[in-house]
Structure of Putative oxidoreductase:
Amino acid sequence: MNNPALGDAAKLIGRILLALMFVLAGWSKISGYAGTQAYMASAGVPGILLPLVIIVELIGGLMIVVGFKTRLVALALFAFTIVASVLFHMNWAQPMQQLLFMKNLAVAGGFLVLFAAGAGAYSVDKD
């Protein structure tokens, strides 16, 4: 890109957009704790893992927004997103589940790009 400032602004906006879903999901799991545990159990995932899920989504998402340890967190959220997709969105007999799976693949791809590109100048990382 010929304009580094524009590229760094795009990275900032991209980080915010990628992270927003995770921050909001993590936060909503706190207020809907029991319901989320029941949903996880219905998919065969132990509810005891919910605090870890909340930390990954909420703290990981906020780390992406501010650009702290971006490459590492992007890789972790890439893996988290793939695992969540396989566990919760494989019932493709329901078109919405197929759509959610594909959306998650796109988000995972965004995290891979962020891993490769780094956070940019408007971040704690400054890479």
